[in-house]
Design goal:
The protein is mainly α and about 350 residues long. The protein has helices at about 1-15, 20-25, 25-45, 55-85, 90-120, 130-140, 145-150, 165-205, 210-235, 240-260, 260-275, 275-290, 295-325, 330-345. Helix 1 runs antiparallel to helix 8 (about 165-205) and helix 10 (about 240-260) packs across helix 11.
């Protein structure tokens, strides 16, 4: 879902100007600063809501959605900036350093927030809203590092593009949000029906997991169809200029398939859509698996939240050095294989816990 959102939102981020900020910082830095300010505001909003208060829980959910939206926007702009800020031969190093920085951010946001909440008095069985509120507010303050970086870096020089009036950009943005509303509404109003279908079909066929998957695929397909219908109706109603929609979404896809051919393009899209499935599934079920293997929570925390992340950061900084010395793209694949083998075989610091 995150990659689908970035696919439709990224072209708008690249086109939409931000008055005043764009003139002061440039288009890339303006979007980056706006996204970071929205992230800070979203975290502060989450800090102001106690999850134990069920009546205000919807505001926590809205703040979480705003956080996901703004962080995805930041991710889009950072990707665009690092690609445009360096020449092609340095892209491997830029990407590796970006991943390393991302891992450092994971340590700060994950373990850092837990340590802060614990230090302020929250513990298992003794939830303290004030402690978590302070932890969230400090995490919002840590975002100041990103804001200062945005203000210090130089704006990249972009190729001159034909200027389009702000009205056309606003109309395109309005059509985009109508499509998003249609997409989300299918899940919001169809969630209960989908749950009933899952249970009914699962009991009837005896394969509940398969039926759950098929119903979710059907729900996603319906949501995409609803967004497409809204887009067509919006274009016929004159909400946005069809030429701008074509230039923003249709033309780049056509150019991609024309450049690589249909077979290669489909293979690349399949690779992009599936290469992280193992990481996503592992992230959801890994702790349950480790506990079933009778590892203690301390051992799991050391291996997964500390050792594993530190090794990922180390590898992220090591790869640019290897790339600069060898200038061989295959070095990345060999390094990844060796690191995974070492961790799987040796797992330093972990021993089997006694039941």
């Amino acid at each position: 879902m995150g990659y689908s959102f970035k696919f439709v939102w990224a072209p708008l981020v690249d086109r939409l100007p931000i008055p005043l900020l764009t003139e002061w910082l440039g288009r890339r830095r303006a979007w980056l600063l706006l996204a970071q300010l929205l992230i800070i505001a979203s975290i502060v909003a989450m800090a102001m809501v106690d999850p134990a208060d069920t009546e205000r829980l919807k505001w926590m959910a809205l703040a979480a959605v705003a956080l996901g939206f703004s962080s995805a926007t930041q991710d889009i702009v950072i990707d665009a900036y690092r690609i445009e800020a360096a020449e092609s031969r340095l892209q491997g190093m830029m990407s590796a350093c970006y991943i390393a920085g991302y891992r450092v951010g994971m340590i700060v946001a994950g373990a850092g927030a837990l340590f802060l909440a614990s230090g302020f008095g929250s513990a298992v069985g003794a939830y303290d809203y004030a402690a978590w509120q302070m932890a969230y507010l400090i995490m919002a303050g840590v975002m100041g590092v990103g804001v200062m970086t945005t203000l210090m870096i130089k704006e990249v020089s972009l190729p001159q593009q034909a200027r389009t009036s702000l009205r056309y950009h606003a109309e395109l943005l309005l059509l985009f949000f109508f499509c998003v509303i249609a997409f989300v509404s299918v899940f919001f109003f169809g969630g209960e029906v989908a749950t009933v279908w899952k249970q009914t079909l699962g009991d009837y066929t005896g394969h509940p997991y398969v039926m759950n998957f098929l119903v979710e695929v059907l729900l996603l397909t319906t949501a995409i169809l609803a967004a497409w219908i809204v887009s067509r109706v919006g274009l016929r109603a004159g909400i946005s200029d069809p030429v701008m929609v074509d230039e923003t979404y249709i033309a780049p896809v056509k150019e991609f398939f024309q450049r690589h051919g249909v077979k290669t393009s489909l293979l690349l899209l399949a690779l992009i859509g599936s290469y992280r499935i193992s990481d996503i599934v592992l992230g959801v079920i890994s702790n349950v698996f480790y506990q079933d293997m009778t590892f203690t929570k301390d051992e799991i925390a050391w291996a997964v939240k500390t050792f594993g992340v530190i090794m990922a950061v180390f590898g992220g900084f090591l790869w640019p050095v290897i790339h600069a010395l060898w200038r061989n793209p295959d070095a990345a694949g060999w390094g990844n294989t060796v690191c995974r083998y070492e961790f799987a075989v040796h797992r330093p610091g972990i021993s089997r816990a006694q039941p």
